[in-house]
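Support reply, case 0932

Customer input (verbatim):
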Amino acid sequence: MNDSPHPKLLSRPELLRRRETWRRSGRRIAFTNGCFDLLHRGHVESLEMAAQHGEMLIVGLNDDDSVRRLKGAGRPLQSVEDRIIVLGALTCISWITVFGETSVEPLIRALLPDCLVKGGDYSPDQIVGAEAVEAAGGQVVVTPHVQHASTSDLLRRLERS
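Our regenerated output:
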């Protein structure tokens, strides 16, 4: 990335500081997270649906090391800097924060969004951080899954071609 950070990128401390201000002013925060390696239709539709559950959408983005731990060697295909630029171009996303933990749970527990949103390839009992969000009075939403729209599907099609 260049010398200046992307305008939508916030460090965790800055995000949490702003969250307190947003909470005091009554702004509803939606949150989702992921690797977002090779942004595709399923990602975009899920992000747009997630944004409908708050006045702003915050995206937790896995850093490169955590993507490798989750997805294996050869991933991510795009650097965290590239993924920030691509996600930042989407108008439905208000803010992006990068996390390095394998699990997003510490970030969710610190942020406690009003609405935690995940794509339909998850069931509610598989959503990390759901219990903490619900215990704090928030809600958990699963958006519909877009068939045949995943990075893994794209990679399989590329291998066959």
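We compared this against your earlier run and they match. Two observations from our side: The CA atoms of residues 12 and 32 lie 15 Å apart. The longest helix spans residues 12-24. Please reopen the case if you see a mismatch on your end.
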